[in-house]
Structures are given as structure tokens and as C-alpha cells.
Amino acid sequence: MTQDPPNRQLQRESALAFRERQPDVEKILFTREGDRPAFGASWRVNAVATVSGVEYQVIIGPDIGPAFVGVGVPPTAPTPFPPATLTVVYSDGSSEVIE
Amino acid sequence: MTTAEEYLDMANQAYAVDPLRQRPSLMVGKMFSAGTSPHEQLYQVIDTEDNPVNGFQAMAVVPVLNGVPDMSQIIVTYAGTNPDHRADVLADVESVVGNQQVLGSQIDDAQRFADSVRRANPGASITTSGHSLGAFLAMLVAAEHRWKSTTFNGPDPWEKLSPEAKAWLQSELAAGNKPLHNYVNEWDLIGNLYLDRTGAADYVSDRPGRSALDYHDIGKNGAFRLNPDGSIAGAGAKGHSLEDIIGNIVDTFAPGAGKALGPGLTGLAGSLRNPTFMNGVAKNVSGLMVAVNTVSALVLAASIGSAVEPLLEVKRANGRIIPRMHEGLLAAKNAASMLPYVTTEDIEACIEAHRLLVRQNVDEEAVADVDRLVDEHIAKVSAISEGISRTVLHSLEQDAQWASAFAGH
Prior knowledge:
Chain A has 99 residues and is of the alpha+beta class. Chain A is built from 1 helix and 6 strands.
């Protein structure tokens, strides 16, 4: 069977996938390690995404659209949106700034 | 119009209802995005169901149009198999309720949830979706309610449909309609578990040699590729026999083993499709997991069995030693006989003087010992491989019995 990459790598891919849909996201904090919830289901993870200073609870994954499981949905980013800096805090406590 | 990609994403999102895996989980009032631009659509959850005992999970969603939930079109989506829950169910049955308890099956839960959504939203157009076991439930519920469904890699539910639902499906199919649309990766074991008697299957082409999970996975690099318009790429393929599908999975681990295990795979395919096992799948989650475990075990058997081939090569090489030495000596004698001044007696004398006879240069007993040793290894390897295959089939029968007992039948 194909093995999934390590969770940290999948969290990073999830953050980048979310940024593609929401380019104005400023920070993503992963609150769980993430996994496949069932046989054949896509890998996903809980996180808190900060958009325009507002925090949104989300479930995201490298190949699944975001589910907004807290209060509200972030407004669509203005287009075109200039490249922004994204701070990613992984569930293992490490962090990274992605330009 | 809802695209296949949106249905696929909804089937994938249904797994986020599980509060044990996602915290917070996808609950009533929450939203998610399905499809990709320019066919991206926001959906809102209007109802959910989570039965932690049998692993059943489902949600009902509506599209959000111009910021407002459109309650006129509802999609009921069922989640598939969660391997964790099987252990939970087994633990409950064995240690808590014994054999007395008859727990609510996933089919009952699925029907109840759909009825609840229908009653709460009279007049709404309802369709269903799901993946794997979720697809099985979605097709079954849709047929019983005369709804449409769009599902992914679901085993065909024909055997569990009521006579009325079967009659309706047959009349729809005769009229050229296809109310149930089940996209099935041509190499997926689960989606191809049963014959396409509902007419729902739309086989999707893929390349052989990938892992069993890839053919079943609904993720980006999984079973289904998407066209830019949100349709499924490669749909309309021919499909394969179950034996070929299992053979492909086995070949992934041990090339050529699928062919070698041909009779075993035919037996396995027959067992998977027997009515008792089918009943097990229909009544709870265990059947699908058995299918997955079965393939894993067969792969192990095939891997071990494939060791026979190199052993046979050793034996073939060993068997060629003495004939080749004889051939070499004969060739040398023939070459020497061409010389005009050398007689046959000279050659024989030379061979004798230099001890060049084959029997003088090879330990025939040692060669025979190698043969015996290889034969023993082949016998052991075959016995292990066959033993695993037998155990797999036996487990299958046991599990089918357990599934029937568990379901109260």
C-alpha cells in the first residue's frame, strides 16, 4: 500500500492548498496531527486560520476543500491578491514562514 | 447544476462528521467548499447523524446561493467505512451485550436519516451521495425513495433492495434513465465487489499496477481524475471481472503471482459474492473490511508463493550441470578427433590420464542433494502460501457467519 507522507509534510501541503483558495490567509495553526478518518477518505486536519485578523476554525487537507467548523466563513479575497507572508504553526510546535 | 466533482467532495466531507476524528467536527450550520473554480460551490450542513456504535455517519447539505441556503435542493451524503469502528463493534458484542443484542444496522440508520430529512423539508428535491460503504447506502436509500444518486466506488446494493425499488429501477433502466450513477474505478475491489445489477456502475479507467488503496481513495491522486468542467475523466470504461481485479492487486506486490494464484482468486471471488457474505456487507461495516483484509492476506500468500519461481530456477540450473559437462566433453572429443594424427584411443587415454570424465569432476550425490533441498523448500513455500489462502477463505466464512449473527439473522 502507498504510505502517506509524514503528518508535518501533509500539514504544510494543507496550508498551501488552503492559501490557494484563500490567498489573504495570514496564519495557520494546526490544532491536531491529522489523519485519514476512514478507508479511502482524504487526509485532513483541524486548524485555525487567521484571515484579516479574524480566526476561523477549519478542517483542511491537501486535496479536500476547506470546511469551516467555527463561526463564519472568511470573505473572498480581493483579486488579484498580492503574494502575502503565511505563518504556519505545526501541531508538533514547530513553525515556518512561507513567502 | 451540481458537478460530479462537487458530489465527490461532498462524499469526502461526510467523513468530517466524525467527532472522534475532527474536533471540532462538521456540524449543523457549518459550511464547506466543494468543487474548484469556476465550479466551486459553498454548501451548508442542515442535518447530521453519528452513531458511534455501528460507525454510521451522514449529513444533509444544501448549496449556499448568494449567501442564502437554498433549501429546495438537498443532498444526503453518507460516510464510508471507518476501520476503527469495527473494533468498537466487536468489543461491544463480545464484552458488553453478548449475543443477545441486536444493534441497529447502518441500513436502518441510513433510511431513518433520509426519512427524517424528507419529513423536515417537504417539497425539496433530494439526491444522495457517498463513497464506499457510504455509496452503497446512498444508492440503496435513493432507490427506495425514487431519488437520484451520484456515488463513488460503492458496492452494488441490488440484493438488499425491496421488490418495489427493484421494479422501479428496472422500469427506469428500460426507459433509458440512469437514476443511480455510481462511478467505479475499474480496478477498485470494493466498488466492484458485486455485479452491477442496479445498472448504476459507470466504470472509470485507470492504469494497472497501483496499490489497492489508490484505486479506492477519493483524494487528489486517488481513484478519480477530474476534467476542467468538473466531470470524471475516463468514465465509460468497460470494467473487469472480480478475479482480474484481485489478480491486479496481487500482481502489484508479486508480479505474475495473480496468474499463478488463478484458481485461488476465482475461489475468493466466488466467496465474496456468496449470499451469506453479501448479507454481512449489507448489515454492517465488517464485510468491506474483510474484503480489504482478505486482499492483504492474499498478497502475503502470493509474495510467499512467488518464492517458488527462483527456487525452480536453482533446480533447473542444478539439473543442467551434468548434461552441460557431458556436452562440453563431447565437444572437446569431437574437436580433437578432427586432428589427423590423433586417434580415438589417444583421446580416451588423455581423458583417463587427466581424469576428465564427468563423474570424476562432479559430485553427483551433491547435485542430487541440492535437488532434494530445493524440492523441500518448494514444498514448504507452497504449503505456507496455500495455508494462508485457506485461512483467508476460512476467515471469510467465519466473518460472514459472525456478520449474520450480529445482524440478527
